[in-house]
């Protein structure tokens, strides 16, 4: 809850009536307050305010001594009018602010123009409490105003420039308030509130007063038009919101064309001294009385300015501020007034000795409150969002305050991270922050957020941080070297520093790796390559490719192969134009296992590129990779077979020897090795099938005839290549053959299968032949079109004569060749059949058969 107090003659501070309550609440105030000073201060020292009216351009203040002051919005006096020796009760302005209406306690009523000489002066025999000008009084057809004493009078100027008076209402006590909006005049008397439609000249409602126990002259009715059809009434502790609506023409009869509906009504805790709208909410000025145990009866406390949200059956308090105005202990409810400026949402709290201005808090005020509550992050966010609208604050200064707060709190990582956003491109601020972080020993925290793009700090700053990491954190140092561009700092100075540390720890892999990276930045790739090879670092191949260091690795091929054979070989083969095959073979000659890996991959890529090394590869495969020896022998076209056979025989590689013998044409010797050394009848049968040589089958049968297991294998497999009867006839009587029954059954099944296949093929062949014969028959039965475009294939004249009435003969063959009958040579006939001489010169073909056409 805010208090209003004088500060340096201009400002009001906001203080809580209860300090403990202020500590507990974190809700931000909705309004801010300041006293209206300057000329107002001097006026109220000698006089007292009785009323005030607010216009967008100026203020009009009435006093108890009968004077009217025109003020600017800062409270400076611009004009002064001495109207009466007694209290000014009401001041009214039209919408243009060009005309002023004043009424006083001694019955005087004056209407005058600020910029014209026209005016109205009248003295009544009773006090005039209120008056209101027509909002459009400046227009000649709207020269109207109302006054209220013991009755409500309407003054209208006619076309003769004379004022006509008419009584709108009387008989219900004094008129205590009147408000004119558009064509509607609302006024309050001792009984209630009435609304008069000046257009239809009808009174359209009567809203009765709720609390009749309160004196109407002490607790005045507050009226406020929210818009042209919404009237807010505050009386005692009761609030009613009334909506003026158009009546349905079918329901009018003798009723007014408009009616009033109370859309919201509720009671408040205190007595209402004034009302004003704020969007869809209400600003209420309360007169507060509280009881005390120490004092008999009640005592007056500071007035309250609340913002409430009206509801259909109640209200919700949004904010509440207690205002310390001068002499509040002496003021009555009727001494307070609340006026507002619709254009700027300014609210003026008027009391006899003080005028306080309340206004909505802007974004600067919101940021002030956040900073006061040390909510720096929210303040920074609010400033960034509204940077175009804030006037008193600077985003960067707020950010610096936030960073300072984080540093004081010990949250160095967050403070460093915020530097990136707050400091932006201000290099001076960056350097100051770096030195501050150095002072508090937190260079590591800010290191990862330093600018490293187009905008950079001085190299000394980066070097200072790198030296700090080098002293305490090798891994962090290595990370910075990887992340920071080499142009940020003096590379040679950092290299020298790393070498100094390596003197103490020569095998430190982190420092060695980082040193290699530094050499790379400095384009000393050979030094970097040596370190990477020494460390067997995975980036060595990337370094070679990226910087084309193939000339530097010609004497380091063995090291590369020892590190990662697969990657090394792939790299060497991909770059044959830079490191030749002969050079690689020369380097690897003393490391045959590595040479084999290289030549093997070369052979897989291209069977012909390394053909001159195929002879050497035979022994390499035999030594290091026998499973790939046979595939190599099968695929190589440049391998010397004699050399290969010699090596395989020396090492007793039977399968490879068998392949070489068969490839050299010595199939019988190869089969013999399979049978004798491998004793594998299945492989022998497979070999015989591959060679498809009848003599080999004879040798296989001869070798197997005295070996029952071999006979079983032959019986199971040779049925499709050799007649099994030949084998069965050669089996000695009485020989026990394992699984003979199963083998014979399989032979019979294979035979039956062959018979079935032959019969199936025969059926298919016969069916296809019959189908094709029927198709040919249908085709040959079709007619053949003969017309003038056809020619004789012998004489090459039209096939039909010019005169078709004469007798002629045409011969048409099934091949579509046509002849004049007389043009055909002597027919060659076989059993009376004639053939086309063109299609069937040598053999019977599609031209067989004849279609003769005669006429």
Instruction: List low-confidence stretches.
Output: 1-24
Structure annotation, total helices: 28
Look at the structure and give the mean pLDDT. 81
- Side by side, the strands of the main sheet go 3-32-31-30
**Biggest beta sheet summary:** 4 strands, antiparallel
Q: Which descriptor suits the 3D outline?
A: elongated
- How large is the radius of gyration? 59 Å
Distance between the termini: 131 Å
Looking at how many chains there are and whether they match, the oligomeric state comes to single chain
Beta-strand residue percentage = 15-25%
Number of strands: 37
Structural class: alpha+beta
Helix content: 25-40%
Description:
The protein is an alpha+beta fold. Helix content is 37%, strand content 24%. It is built from 28 helices and 37 strands. The protein has a four-stranded antiparallel beta sheet, with helices on one face. A four-stranded antiparallel beta sheet has the order 4-5-6-7, covered by helices on one side. Strands 8-9-10-11 form a four-stranded antiparallel beta sheet, with no helix packed on it. Helix 13 (525-535) runs antiparallel to helix 14 (540-547). The longest helix has 42 residues, at 740-781. Mean pLDDT is 81; it is low at 1-24.
């Amino acid at each position: 809850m805010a208090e209003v107090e004088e500060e340096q003659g201009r400002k009001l501070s906001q203080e809580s009536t209860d300090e403990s309550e202020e500590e507990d609440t974190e809700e931000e105030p909705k309004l801010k307050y300041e006293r209206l000073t300057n000329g107002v201060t001097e006026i109220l020292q000698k006089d007292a305010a009785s009323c005030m009216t607010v216009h967008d351009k100026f203020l009009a203040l009435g006093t108890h001594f009968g004077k009217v002051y025109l003020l600017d919005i800062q409270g400076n006096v611009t004009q002064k009018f001495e109207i009466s020796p007694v209290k000014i009760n009401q001041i009214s302005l039209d919408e243009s602010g060009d005309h002023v209406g004043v009424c006083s306690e001694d019955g005087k009523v004056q209407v005058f123009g600020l910029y014209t000489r026209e005016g109205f002066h009248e003295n009544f025999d009773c006090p005039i409490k209120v008056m209101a000008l027509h909002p459009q009084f400046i227009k000649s057809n709207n020269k109207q105003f109302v006054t209220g004493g013991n009755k409500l009078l309407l003054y209208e100027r006619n076309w003769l420039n004379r004022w006509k008076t008419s009584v709108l209402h009387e008989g219900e006590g004094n008129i205590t308030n009147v408000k004119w909006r558009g064509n509607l005049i609302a006024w309050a008397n001792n009984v209630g509130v009435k609304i008069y439609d000046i257009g239809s000249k009808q009174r359209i409602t009567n809203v009765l007063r709720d609390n009749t126990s309160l004196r109407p002259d002490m607790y005045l009715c507050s009226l406020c038009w929210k818009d042209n059809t919404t009237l807010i009434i505050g009386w005692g502790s009761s609030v009613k919101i009334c909506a003026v609506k158009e009546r349905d023409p079918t329901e009018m009869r003798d009723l007014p064309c408009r009616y009033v509906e109370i859309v919201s009504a509720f009671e408040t805790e205190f007595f209402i001294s004034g009302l004003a709208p704020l969007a869809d909410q209400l600003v209420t000025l309360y007169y507060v009385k509280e009881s005390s145990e120490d004092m008999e009866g009640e005592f007056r406390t500071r007035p309250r300015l609340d913002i409430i949200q009206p509801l259909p059956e109640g209200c919700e308090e949004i904010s509440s501020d207690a205002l310390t105005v001068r002499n509040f202990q002496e003021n009555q409810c009727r001494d307070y007034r609340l006026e507002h400026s619709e254009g700027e949402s300014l609210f003026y709290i008027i009391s006899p000795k003080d005028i306080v201005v309340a206004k909505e808090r802007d974004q600067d005020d919101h940021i002030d409150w956040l900073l006061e509550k040390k909510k720096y992050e929210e303040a920074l966010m609010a400033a960034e969002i509204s940077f175009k609208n804030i006037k008193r604050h600077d985003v960067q200064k707020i950010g610096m305050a936030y960073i300072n707060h984080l540093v004081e709190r010990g949250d160095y990582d967050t403070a460093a991270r915020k530097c990136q956003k707050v400091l932006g491109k201000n290099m001076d601020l960056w350097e100051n922050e770096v030195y501050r972080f150095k002072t508090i020993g937190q260079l590591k925290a800010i290191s990862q957020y330093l600018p490293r793009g187009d905008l950079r700090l001085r190299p000394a700053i980066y070097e200072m941080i790198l030296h700090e990491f080098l002293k305490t954190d090798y891994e962090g140092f290595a990370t910075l070297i990887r992340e920071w561009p080499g142009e940020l700092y003096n590379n040679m100075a950092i290299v020298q520093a790393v070498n100094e540390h390596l003197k103490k720890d020569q095998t430190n892999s982190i420092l060695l790796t980082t040193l290699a990276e530094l050499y790379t930045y400095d384009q000393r790739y050979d030094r970097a390559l040596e370190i990477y090879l020494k460390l067997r670092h995975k980036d060595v191949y990337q370094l070679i490719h990226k910087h084309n260091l193939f000339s530097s690795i010609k004497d380091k091929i063995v090291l590369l192969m020892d590190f990662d054979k697969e990657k090394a070989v792939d790299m060497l083969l991909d770059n044959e134009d830079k490191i030749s095959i002969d050079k690689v073979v020369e380097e690897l000659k003393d490391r045959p296992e590595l040479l084999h890996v290289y030549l093997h991959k070369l052979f897989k890529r291209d069977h012909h590129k390394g053909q001159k090394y195929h002879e050497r590869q035979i022994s390499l495969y035999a030594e290091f990779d026998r499973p790939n020896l046979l595939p190599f022998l099968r695929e190589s076209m440049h391998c010397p077979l004699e050399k290969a056979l010699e090596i395989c025989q020396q090492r007793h590689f039977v399968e490879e020897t068998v392949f070489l013998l068969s490839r050299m044409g010595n199939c019988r010797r190869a089969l013999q090795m399979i049978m004798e050394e491998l004793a594998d009848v299945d492989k022998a049968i497979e070999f015989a099938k591959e060679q498809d040589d009848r003599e080999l089958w004879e040798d296989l049968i001869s070798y197997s005839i005295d070996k029952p297991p071999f006979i079983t294998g032959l019986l199971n497999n040779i049925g499709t290549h050799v007649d099994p009867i030949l084998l069965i006839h050669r089996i000695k009587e009485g020989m026990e053959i394992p699984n003979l029954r199963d083998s014979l059954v399989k032979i019979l099944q294979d035979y039956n299968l062959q018979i079935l296949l032959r019969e199936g093929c025969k059926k298919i062949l016969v069916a296809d032949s019959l189908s094709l014969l029927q198709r040919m028959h249908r085709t040959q039965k079709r007619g053949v079109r003969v017309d003038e475009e056809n020619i004789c294939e012998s004489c090459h004249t039209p096939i039909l004569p010019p005169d078709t009435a004469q007798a002629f003969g045409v011969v048409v063959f099934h091949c579509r060749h046509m002849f004049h009958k007389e043009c055909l040579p002597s027919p060659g006939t076989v059993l009376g059949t004639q053939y086309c001489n063109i299609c069937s010169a040598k053999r019977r073909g599609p031209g067989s058969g004849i279609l003769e056409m005669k006429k």
